[in-house]
Amino acid sequence: MSVTALRPGIADPIHFFWFIPTHGDGSYLGSERQQRPAEFPYFKQIAQAVDQLGFEGVLLPTGQSCEDSWITATGLATVTERLKFLVALRPGVVSPSFAARQTAALDRLSNGRLLLNVVVGGNPVELAGDGVFLPHDERYLQADEFLTIWRRLLSGETLDFRGKYYRVEGGRIDFPPVQSPHPPLWFGGSSDAGQEIAAEHTDVYLTWGEPVAGVAEKVERARQRAAARGRKLRFGIRLHFIVRETEEEAWAAADRLISRVSDAQIEAAQKRFAEQMDSVGQKRMAELHGGRRDRLVVAPNLWAGVGLVRTGAGTALVGTPEQVAERLREYQAVGIDTVIGSGYPHLEEAYRVAELLFPALGIENRLRRLGAAVANEFTVGRHGRERVAAAS
């Protein structure tokens, strides 16, 4: 049975992924209090929990401050059963032929549970540390050649290729991937150059969490570009979640998350984002709040507090299960069918999302289904229901 099985009254399924915090985790942003180091045993706890809870997959981030996503996913694939792994594919950082062999190997090891997140942009300062010095738009031209070679090799071709950035002679993959012709390609990029890559090569286009109108505009632009090539895209959104039984609890948790962030930290982070990064998506995130604490609620239940100090996805849906589910249905209405969620700390918040939000979305919580068959102090169970029926 699909983890996106629907309850009556919900028109469309939603695919729900979670996040492995390979750069560290904790209860407070901007503070060393109650922090959890980036260690594999902790990643394993999260992966096994979300595998059992009914999440469809996990995103592993990439960058200088993260444990390597490929090696981490390989380890996690051996200790999970159903979970899919969205791993970074970095044009310009590795060769396309080498990346194709890595892809095939991990797809076989995981028995077809590999997904690829094409990461072209980011922070030019960090990219320089990896030996990448191309300007923004040219990085996407290089990525076009990279993905062309990568796709053709994994499709079984013996390839000769000569382009501006890559030259391959007699390239081939002797051990094919499980998924045919290759694991799906996902991509997130707000610039025109990025959307051209998405339209030409990828299967799922991702956006960070913006107000619905902004997401709808990005989705429509990407859809039109793909249609011009005779292709169709699916669409996903990357969001944090703070879901509680009452609205007051949810907003209190949001305030607590940034309660130890200083004004100096916010100023330094926003300056770094503006001066070091050439990401259009990052600029859109920063413009939502302008670095100001009094502008963090940017749409109903959409809170930009995480983006005060965090790069990338900086918004969270905050509220009751019913409120958050309604906001997600608004995103669905403009084409979003996949959510990549996260929350601080990621282990506990995965349980909260599964226990509170999944029922409101009609997603099956496997632990809840398994627990319904037993009788204990936490559930009526089958035998308890029999006693209730007998007494009535």
Automatic annotation (TrEMBL):
It holds the Pfam family Bac_luciferase. Keywords: Flavoprotein, FMN, Monooxygenase, Oxidoreductase. Residues 15-337 form the Luciferase-like domain. Its EC number is 1.14.14.5. The keyword Zinc-finger does not apply. GO terms for molecular function: alkanesulfonate monooxygenase activity. SUPFAM superfamilies: Bacterial luciferase-like (SSF51679). It catalyses: an alkanesulfonate + FMNH2 + O2 = an aldehyde + FMN + sulfite + H2O + 2 H(+). Belongs to the SsuD family. This is Alkanesulfonate monooxygenase. It comes from Enterovirga aerilata.
